[in-house]
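The protein record minuted underneath.
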Amino acid sequence: MAELSYESTSRELATDQGVLRYHEAGDGPPLLMLHGSGPGVTGWRNYRGNLAAFSRHFRCLVLELPGFGVSDPVEGHPMVTAPAAVARFLDGLGLRQVDVIGNSMGGIVGTRFALDDPERVRRLVTIGGIGRNLYSPGPGEGIRLLTEFTDNPTREGLVRWLHSMVYDPALVTEELIAERWRLATDPQALENARAMYGSAAFAARAGAAAASDEAPYWAMLHKLRARTLITWGRDDRVSPLDMSILPMRTIPRAELHTFPDCGHWVMIEQKAAWESAVLAFLTREETA
């Protein structure tokens, strides 16, 4: 297999709302991989270490969602506009149905998309993030540190947030810090981050939610038809493990796999074990 570098996997798709950028590797059934949020995030940075394993079995499509400094931006809150971007992306590639892996915010986006258009998602894998705090304070420590960085973007604040993402602090290398800092401080990326995680944005969303009669996505999980695997780091300080209880109990036939000594980035921190569990789930023969 040829080396799966950034350059060799990079692709672009022109749509009626700008260019969607993505990475593609492998042949086989299509597997859409959706990244999380946070300073300096990209789909490539979330999943570059997993492409070798998954591209042996799937046509991996790592979409860069609008609003994070890679694909062309669109108007609106990045999380709200993401499901429509997913639909545009799949339509543009002529894909009717895919499997989906979503990390944190990407898991919420994949879940919303599967709820809105159930025929298009065969199987869904989430990595932390979905659900709701039941016993732990919300928002979690990692989200609070993310808000602090977004309000006041300093290198020290970025490092504090990065440490909240992992169980093993050795993963927060100088290379990782520098890589995340470059994109996190891009003016457009920072503006989008403030729209999502700034303290003013949080307050505005809380007020809007209190005044709205619309049910939150987590209250609709019982309607999810895609066979679902929920994966979680036992030591997640961004979305604590108790958040998994609601989706595990309400999503029909959902499976929950918890990984020890692991924070929010399960696909990175427990790479081999996570890849093994997810591949077994995605390649398992359908049962009634």
